[in-house]
Amino acid sequence: MVAGCCTNEVTVNVSVHRMWKAAACEDHILLPKIIPQYFAGAELVGDGEAGSTKTFHFTPAAEPLTFVKDHVEVLDHGSHTMRYKAIEGGHLGRTLKSHAFEVKFEAAGADSCVVKTKTEYDTIDDAPLPEDEVQKMTDVPVRMMKSVEAYLIANPGVCA
After folding, report:
1. Cα–Cα 20 to 30 A to 69, which of 10, 38, 83, 93?
2. Average of pLDDT values for 33-57?
């Protein structure tokens, strides 16, 4: 097993309040609407707060992945920080033994914020992940946040 970590950050032109609500609190509702070519649907078990689970179902565009079930470990509305851990599906059992994400939303102005993502993982075997897989883990959150940003800008009443 090899432990790894990758981080990224992206600035978006949407207030921290709207991005937090859309990308952390209502992601299970909005991601299938915003990125239907990748997300086929989602289910929430619980109230969305810490202790809940969110299952995201993927379209064939995400092959070989079909779904991922995440356990919400932290959803801190005061610091705009969320932490979740994959508990089924995704890359678990394929290349990863564990996979966890922490996302922090920080205000950068009245209508902008910085989204910082940290991804931690353990591989199944004693080899590190190939560099292209690490790059995907770094790039995917940025692309998702930019998609959420575009949707919120185009729909100013959503998550207002």
Report:
1. 10
2. 97
